[in-house]
User: Which sequence fits this backbone?
């Protein structure tokens, strides 16, 4: 224990340690491990009828406290699954062991999303014990597949829409932008992922005996990938930006007013210089512009063959009204129009395409959240930010439940989400509990729609 943990609720640290110790990696963990994590969470929701319910994949955790007649109903969303550990040699501590390290807690899932979820459960349990009631009706939906794109959540939510009905969804997932000021994200980017598959000969060929006589799929793939952008960083695919509105001068001014240091950002990521679409600031590109990124190439190796196959792994983050299906069609048409003799080229889109999401800055829930944060962080400006990543459940809740999602997580984007040495600032736990309580009090009287 350290002085930083003295402010935590009794038993919270031990509970979080138990929770982090369950290696609920949804990419590789067996069903028994995932179910153990779900059952652990359900037990912490016994005061609201916590239970584990089946999906076609890993189970969800449900709970309902509906003891506030006439008050709004909110649905609290989060997830119990975590990302793989990656290279264990890069971890300074054991990934599935909670470690107190000065003013932070370390461990896989501690900030994404186990800590942020657990603090909400602890806040609600404490509020109920102290007041005898909650100020509004609360449902909980905690899933085990967020880190793999929530493939089975849509069918579950649509089948249980009446039971999940709420005026507002509040997400305990979706970190604050940075630690220097409180923030609320009013948008998240959509996602399309695809492979560009180039094939040539029927099998790998010796580069000496066959070199110069057949097309090399790696060379052709390099041509394809290089064609996706112009020299100044803009996406060169016709139709890719359909549905992306011109950035209004007011929004440019709002972004320009944010305290953001390009050099500090460059140094933090370790790049020799920053680069991106011309005509936009670094922050404007990060928050308001769509992207097309090459995430990897699979082909051959360091041996003397001409690979018969090369695959480029591509992902696109979407904004505005971009249609994920149209984006795939545009990229496919662009690739098909290229002159690539001697090879066959195919674009294979991944399932689970997600459009961009947005909640208006003047939405009553956003106003209530800003007031709650201002109460916990007096004298600090509450920044309206954008999540450059993707949270698949937001657009699902809007289409299936007719409810907007408010991002209200007390993780921070720099806490090594998905990377080795993931951590959570200890102070955020107490701050988050106070802010969630203040938010619920305001939503109970100030409206949720």
Assistant:
């Amino acid at each position: 224990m350290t002085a930083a943990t003295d402010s935590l609720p009794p038993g919270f640290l031990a509970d979080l340690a138990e929770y982090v110790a369950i290696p609920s990696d949804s990419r590789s963990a067996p069903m028994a491990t995932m179910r153990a994590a779900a059952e652990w969470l359900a037990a912490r929701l016994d005061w609201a009828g916590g239970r584990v319910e089946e999906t076609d994949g890993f189970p969800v955790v449900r709970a309902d406290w509906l003891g506030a007649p006439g008050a709004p109903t909110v649905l609290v969303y989060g997830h119990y699954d975590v990302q793989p550990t990656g290279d264990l040699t890069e971890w300074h501590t054991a990934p599935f062991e909670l470690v107190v390290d000065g003013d932070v807690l370390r461990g896989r899932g501690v900030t994404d999303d186990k800590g942020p979820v657990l603090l909400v459960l602890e806040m609600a349990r404490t509020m109920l014990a102290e007041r005898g009631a909650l100020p509004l009706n609360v449902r909980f939906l905690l899933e085990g597949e967020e880190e793999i794109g929530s493939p089975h959540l849509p069918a579950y939510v649509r089948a249980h829409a009446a039971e999940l009905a709420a005026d507002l969804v509040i997400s305990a997932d979706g970190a604050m932008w940075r630690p220097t000021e409180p923030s609320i994200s009013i948008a998240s980017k959509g996602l399309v992922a695809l492979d560009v598959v180039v094939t040539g000969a029927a099998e790998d060929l010796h580069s000496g005996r066959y070199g110069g006589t057949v097309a090399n799929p790696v060379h052709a793939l390099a041509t394809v990938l290089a064609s996706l952008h112009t020299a100044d960083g803009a996406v060169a695919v016709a139709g890719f930006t359909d549905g992306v509105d011109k950035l209004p001068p007011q929004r440019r001014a709002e972004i320009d007013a944010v305290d953001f240091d390009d050099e500090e950002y460059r140094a933090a990521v370790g790049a020799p210089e920053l680069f991106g679409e011309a005509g936009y600031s670094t922050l404007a590109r990060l928050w308001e512009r769509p992207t097309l990124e090459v995430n990897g190439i699979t082909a051959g190796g360091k041996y003397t063959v001409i690979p018969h196959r090369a695959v480029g792994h591509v992902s696109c983050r979407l904004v505005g009204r971009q249609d994920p299906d149209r984006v795939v069609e545009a990229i496919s048409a662009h690739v098909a129009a290229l002159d690539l003799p001697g090879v066959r080229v195919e674009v294979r889109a991944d399932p689970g395409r997600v459009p961009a999401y947005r909640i208006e800055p003047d939405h009553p829930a956003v106003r209530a959240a800003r007031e709650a944060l201002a109460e916990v962080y007096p004298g600090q400006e509450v920044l309206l930010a954008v999540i450059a990543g993707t949270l698949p459940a937001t657009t699902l809740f809007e289409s299936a439940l007719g409810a907007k999602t408010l991002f209200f997580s007390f993780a921070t984007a720099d806490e090594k989400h998905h990377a080795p040495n993931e951590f959570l600032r200890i102070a955020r736990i107490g701050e988050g509990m106070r802010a969630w309580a203040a938010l619920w009090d305001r939503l109970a009287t100030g409206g949720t729609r």
